[in-house]
Amino acid sequence: MASTSATLSLTSSSTLIDSKAPRQPSGISSLQCTSLPSIHASMEQSQNRQQTWKTTAYCRKLARNVITKATGETPAEMVSTETPEIVKKVQEAWEKVDDKYAVTSIAVAGAIAVWGSSGMISAIDRLPLVPGVLELVGIGYTGWFAYKNLVFKPDRDALLGKIKATYKDILGSSS
After folding, report:
1. How far apart are CA 88 and CA 91, in angstroms?
2. Predicted local distance difference test score (pLDDT) of residue 130
3. Residue 4: what are its φ and ψ, rounded to 5°?
4. What distance in Å separates the CA atoms of residue 52 and residue 114, rounded to the nearest whole number?
5. What is the pLDDT of residues 74-89, one digit of tens each?
6. Quick one: CA torsion of 113, 114, 117, 123, rounded to 10 degrees?
7. pLDDT digits (tens, 9 = 90+) for 6-37
8. For the chain, what is the largest distance between any 2 Cα atoms, rounded to a whole number of angstroms?
9. Cα-flanking dihedrals φ and ψ of residue 6, to 5°?
């Protein structure tokens, strides 16, 4: 059997992070990254395998120390250090909150509830018949909702009115 080994030379014109060339281990004579060796078990191949692993490890170290820089023009939006409008609104809303401890506690409790419910849903999903039954229930409810609220014009208008009223109750005004 002929042994095959692919070789990839590592050349880069990128800048090194610490501005120094890394030291080359004493056993590595060239900067080449080599693929996995063949499975032959002779002594010579065992030595080649050790050399290959040393070379591969060295090339990985070298690759970690290299950073690249994009060339060309940067868009004006990326150069600007101005915070987005949504962040400003969130900061203003946070400053208006009187009981920040309670709001933070509610947010943490909500995150824990989402995490717990996702675990429960994944456990239910593993049961043999339940996912198929729940899918059928969802399809049936969607069909019923569409027939009851979306097929006829008066029903659509009533649904739209309910949505607008709920929106107004939550936000205080409708846009």
Report:
1. 5
2. 86
3. -120, 140
4. 48
5. 655 555 577 788 898 9
6. -130
7. 444 444 444 445 455 555 555 544 455 555 55
8. 86
9. -85, 140
DSSP annotation of 43: H
- Strand-pair partners of 7: 34
- What are the φ and ψ backbone dihedral angles of 5, each rounded to 5 degrees? -145, 125
The Cα–Cα gap between 146 and 138 comes to: 12
CA-angle at 93, arms to 90 and 95, nearest 5°? 110
Neighbours of 34 (CB within 10 A): 19
Report how far residue 124's alpha carbon sits from residue 134's, in angstroms, rounded to the nearest whole number.
10
Domain boundaries, the chain: 7-67, 85-126, 129-175
Contacts with 149 (C-beta within 8 Å, 6 or more apart), sequence order = 155, 156, 158, 159
Other CB atoms within 10 A of residue 25 CB: 12
What kind and span of H or E run contains 119?
helix 100-125
CB count, 10 Å around CB of 55?
A: 21
Q: Mapped to the 3 state alphabet, what secondary structure does 93-113 carry?
A: HHHHCCCHHHHHHHHHHHHHH
Determine the angle formed by the axes of helices 153-171 and 130-149, rounding to 10 degrees.
100
- Residue 128, pLDDT > 50, answer yes
DSSP assignment of 48-69 equals HHHHHHHHHHHHHHHHHTEE--
What's this model's pTM, rounded to 2 decimal places? 0.34
